[in-house]
Design goal:
The protein is of the alpha/beta class. The protein has 10 helices and 8 strands. Helix 3 runs antiparallel to helix 10 and helix 5 crosses helix 8. The relative contact order is 0.23.
Amino acid sequence: MLVQGAITSLEQFLQIVDAIRLRRVPLGFMGLPMRWEFYRGQADACWAVTPGITRELPDVQAVRNADAAVMSHFRQRMTEMDRLDRLHFWQPPRGFQDDWSLYFQAQHYRIPTRLLDWSGKPEVALFFAVEQPQYDESDGAFYVYYNPPSHLKIDGGAQYQDFAAVPPTDVTGTWFLNPAFDANRDREGTLAEGRRLTQYGKFTLQPYDRCLQGLDKQADIILPYNETMDSDIPVMEKWIIPAPVKAQLRLDLAAREWYGEALYLYEDPFINEIQAECLALRNSFC
């Protein structure tokens, strides 16, 4: 996909974000629905923008099988290890809300799923692009996803907007998921929900036959942005983060309190054990 430019300093990055947000203004003047922008960072600019469950799997059926096996194993092991109290389920659940809750929390426990992480905060995405020193020799990537209102799925609301009305296995098209937070939950106790809150977490989800292909390879999503294009089309853009500036960006972000302990909260060794099992299970379908 077309690269928009390079991010070489935090000051320049913030200027880029300001310019991105100003794109909403002409849409308002023209009476068009605004595409709200969300952000993603990757440590290596050469990586495809694909969900964790699909990586290295050969075909659609393998993705289906791996997805079902991993989610079943995640629920089973959380039950066996008496860790269900670390999961948040709405009471009473509506429709397929339990299935979605499990999916969202698995993602923030680093279990491979069909979800792709996005953040409402650009600094969070930049942090994920530069956080790991072992990738300081590789250029990173910063992505912006402009989401049309018609693709937004939320908790409740109109029938066409409520993701809980269908199970995650039956998604059609490209969905942008903005699940609600339960303000009464213990963020430390339900770690995945706490992480989603601190990371301003959102998700995209696509059907099995599309999620094998990276978003950065889908021609209908990587069209060049312009204000007059069909406002029902999502658009994604990419910036490069050159390897030599990663360490300084990491320091500059930490000075503004964007660092690992603030975004991950803490590590749970029991959950990390389940994560390793789920990764091995996914790899068995390769």
